[in-house]
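Work through this protein:
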Amino acid sequence: MGEKISAEQMLNDIFGIMQRLYNEMRSNENHHGDHLKVFEIFAELGRTLVEADRASFWRWDKRTHLLITTAATGTNQIVISDKTGLVGQALAENRTVLTNDPYNHPNFNSEVDKKTGYVTKSVLVMPVSNCRGEIIGAFQVINKLGNDAGFNETEDIKRLSIAAFICGMALESDIFMADSQRDNLTELKNRFGFHSDYQKHYRQVDVPMSIIICDIDFFKKVNDTYGHNAGDAVLIHVSKILASKIRGCDNVYRWGGEEFIIVLKGATVDEAANIAERVRLAVMDSVCKFEDKEIRVTMSFGCTEINSALSVEENIKIADERLYRAKETGRNRVIFKTNPEENF
């Protein structure tokens, strides 16, 4: 544990942190919306304001019911269920949780301390909300410095609320950005999400990467025969198959309408074609149940290996041209080579 710092030193530290935060927000390195460094600075601000040994800032993913650290002192990213721990309690009860005797608190999880040897003496967790008052995360500080009595229920909560308020605004912006990159119907990332990921992760890589473009055959006929609600059910059905058949390192996106893009890390075009064939067979053999109907569909696929010398549009065009050939030559097939006889 460190010594309690003077008011003048704390003020200087806060000014220094805010200057770093300002510079980071203006940095060109943040132009893709990656705010991890910003949240690390926020965590340091909260830790400094209440004179704590450690701090962590948590994002609440309501879709997956997970709590994820966007920043945490002294550890890598932590992912836990939103039903566990003091952070889970703070969110569930929508109130600040403070304990200066954590090992006797029923909701404190001591497993991390047992693994690392760290001794937790005091914990303060404050829910973080958006501008509509909806909880979106939490700020946690651990072990009050220079004070064996632990956190003060009045003073430290008042101080931490400053960091929690600023973090709430930043996290709301981050969540809004993430939501804008996700398709509401299928819950896959959308075209905007693809372009964002391409710039950050796919443009310059040291391993082969491939793209699969695929769409549902005769999808208009599904809508015309069964109605648009049935068409939506088919899109959801197909999306789940796509997501379940790719590897953990791959990503699938709804490109628009009934068309999807899959990006495969470390995969040559031949390997991508094998994955596409696996997906094709899974879709063909599946049944989408909608109300009292059983709907069957097939898909066509075009594959190409990403050429880093080409633009994203040029790489997509190659895969799209192969998808078009698959549609023109009978549908329900995979095109990845020039010679028609070598394709699936």
Residues 104 and 110 are 10 Å apart (CA to CA).
